User: Fold this.
Amino acid sequence: MMSLCDMPPSNPHPLALVVDDDARLRLLARTFLEQAGLVVEEAASGEAALAAFEQRHPDIVLLDVTMPGMDGFEACAALRRLPGGDRTPIVMLTGPDDGESITRAYEADATDFAQKPLNGAILAHRVRYLLRVNSTVEALRKSEACLANAQRIAHMGNWEWNLTTQAFHLSEEGRRILGRPEPDACITHAAYLQCVHPDDQRLVKDAFDATVTQQTRLSVDHRMCGPDGAIRIVHQEGEVACDAAGRPAALVGTIQDITERKRAQEHLDFLAYYDSLTGLPNRLLYRDRLAQAVADAQRHGHLAATLLLDLDRFKLINDTLGHQQGDRLLQEVSDRLKTCVRNSDSVGRPHDNRPSPAGVRDRSASLARLGGDEFTILLNRIAGAPDAAKVARRILASLAKPFHLDGQDVFVTVSIGIAIFPLDGESADQLLKNADTAMYHAKQSGRNTYQFYSQSMNASAGERLAIENRLHKALDREEFLLHYQPLVALETGRIIGVEALVRWQHPELGLVPPMQFISIAEETGLIIPLGEWVLQQACAQARAWHEVGLAGLRVAVNLSARQFQRQNLLHVITRILLATDLNPRCLDLELTESMMMQDGESTSATLRELQALGVRLSMDDFGTGYSSLSYLRRLPLDTLKIDRSFVKDCTVNQEDATIIKAIVAMSHSLKLKVLAEGIETEDQLAFLRAAGCDEAQGYYFSKPMAAEPLTSLLKTTMLERRSSITTAV
Ligand code: C2E
Ligand code: MG
Ligand code: MG
Assistant:
């Protein structure tokens, strides 16, 4: 089929239809026209003219005015209504000086007239002229149709913005893209801008203005809003058209609907960057985001953390329940992780809530699936390691609830490794690698737990041995010492006890905090003799304080999981209490939630034996949420120590404040005392007192310090009840 655009602009031998009831006149006209190169067809009446027109599609019609039956005016009007009739020139043949006929001829929509008697030369000129004009118009019409067709196929419209009148002409396809097909839609530039999506209007207006003022090329992608609210994405290109004097007169351009292309692109991106099972970002996208976070953190001096999660024994579930259920489990795990991440906006320092400068990502978290049963979480702009720990604990708690699969309850735990930028790596790859190492250690230390990366994890066998040797020697060389931090009763403001915190006085490194060596001591088993030394030392110190008049002062000692699991724990404690002659009520053993959750039966049995001995028992770092109320009820505890991470934000974070109040209420109903750790400010203190906390500990009262300098402080507060602490509380 011949397309519109391929048609020749004009016919080399145009066909003329001559209509007259007078055969002589027809012959005369035929002679003139054939001389002028036309082919002639004749008709003797109006009716015959209509039939011939429909059959032969002449290029021009010569039509006598007066004919029997249908006259020329009627025939002209009827021809105009036939297909193609509106585009064919019709010349009316009138009598000489017949003014009325000429007027009527134009009224009947004739193109021109010729007077009888016919003048051959004039007629030939006139007919050729009309044919030429008509073929130009026809060609224009065809190219317009071609353009419209091309625009429709390319979803592209064109527009012209007259800078003087502000008139805006938009082509048919352009209006269709906007969902406003009516011809008078968007007749001004302002009206056109109104069709732009509200969020993009500034962008588009600026782009148009810049094109005019700087005479640059317009090229902008943005959204358009149809009257029905439908959103299309368009690409606009344009440039300035200048007048004869070289001044910008108009902006001309194109608008193309790229919605489908964008969607296809998005779909491709989705396939490339997302995991199809869970819809989460995949490893590729995660690496990208992590690298971006690292760059931002570097530029603005923030901390960022990456948490690497690996489900414990997932393979077993997959093998037992089948891959389909395994997939479902992964989907449900991903749903739970999403909620943990969504809540993670409670991490970070209060002042980090300020709006971030342009180009800087907000403090945010993102979750990804790296493949298999491995997930990862990125935390941007955290205040410190406790923020990451908080999210890790939230995850452990959230996964602790059973999953319902195939009619049965399935329990899933996860091991989490955490690496923090810039402490644990300066690049995305380094962080992921170190988080992986930490995750491996979390698996090693019994699963269902989280572990921060530490350099010792990467230490070669030789280096590790050196650390271990040094640790061993440290005990022999008496390089360990204890610092004590006061515990304050909020009601009276008095110091009622101290927590013993071990330090390593390293000959080269100085005072090493426990976070840096306790885990190695645990892994190597050194924690057993070290723990015993701490107990011995702390009990002896407490007894010494009692001797100098500080009767009843309690000492809290942290127990490690390894110590707690030892069969002879009860024996060791009894021996030490006897040797130091300390009242068991003055020894407080601090245990952590994860220790107590390990083996339900033997744990509560051990605790009961300790209770029978008379020592106090505290649950340290509480607030992680994975100790259930019913479980706590079965444990013979005296005190719950609310973890420092909750106290830190309690005055600014509603969620933390609510958790603290709930812990206090719950503890009191179980007849437990509540101690808040890590109080640093007066506001935190005020909040915790109002919340009903019984005891507190933190830098606000005193940092941990050696026994000797602490003795005088204890004496002033306990004996004279007059001190900075008393007045502060
Ligand atoms: P923990 O039992 O939760 O001890 C409290 C920690 O919080 C101490 O850190 C203390 O210095 C710190 N702290 C107290 N008040 C504040 C405060 O207001 N702000 C801040 N930012 N921190 C505060 P430390 O001494 O570094 O001990 C860290 C952890 O090491 C302890 O946490 C405990 O789990 C462990 N640890 C310490 N000594 C021993 C020990 O003898 N045996 C065992 N097994 N673990 C120990
Ligand atoms: Mg403690
Ligand atoms: Mg603690």
Summary: Residues 485, 501-502, 513-515, 518, 531, 534, 558, 560, 590, 620-621, 644, 677-680, 697-699, 704 surround C2E (ligand 1) (CB under 6 Å).
